[in-house]
Amino acid sequence: MRRVAAVVLLLALAAPVASAKIIPTYRKDPATDGRGALDIVRVAMSRGTDGRLRGEVTMEDGWDTADLRSATGPSGSICLTLFTRRQPGAEPPDWLVCATPGPEGDELRGRVLRDRSNGLPRQVAAARLTRPTARTIYLRFTQRAIGRPASVRFAAQAVTWARRCPRLLGCRDTAPDAPTTGNLTLRSTAPSG
Fold it and tell me: Using alpha carbons only, what angle is made at residue 125 by residues 52 and 136, rounded to the nearest 5 degrees?
């Protein structure tokens, strides 16, 4: 009887942990298809138990903030490209969630940007950044920051400005290759009776 009670107690304690597990929707990208220091091999998105969204971008090799800096041009970036109304492949996407170097040191800044028809994208919220490994970055942000869509189609883009990169566009890698995207459903769109 004690054994049965212990097993039931163990299952009851494990159930909340299992239900809190984040299962991402992800897309893989071929290794070595990018130009420049950053080659994306995996992009994923998931919704956490707190409702916040988490994007994950993984590179072929380890990287650091110095890989995004340029001595002569603008800083590079690692961005999620999010489509909530526009079709994937449309330029620009509805939203960008980006990691860019801070003014100095190894700091990275996370921003959620909204496209504007008459100018550069505008920051609408902050994104929280974490680096679980030398190859991966997580970008966390609220659903409210992107308008609480029913679903989001996503991809990732890394841009660097090394010496051998094209002057106007920089070295870019996208994952998956456009116009392919991943799709994360956030809420049911079925009519309620």
Answer: 60
CB 80 within 8 A of CB 56: no
DSSP, res 88: T
Closest CA relative to residue 76, chosen from 95, 88, 89, 63: 63
Domain count, the chain: 1
CATH number at residue 130: 2.60.40
Q: Residue 2: inside a domain, yes or no?
A: no
Q: Give the tens place of pLDDT for each residue, 36-94.
A: 678 999 999 999 999 999 999 999 999 999 999 887 778 899 999 999 999 887 788 99
pTM above 0.90, yes or no: no
Q: Residue 84: its pLDDT value, please?
A: 95
- Reduce the DSSP state of residue 175 to 3 states and report it: strand
Residue 26 lies in a domain: yes
* DSSP reduced 3-state for 158: strand
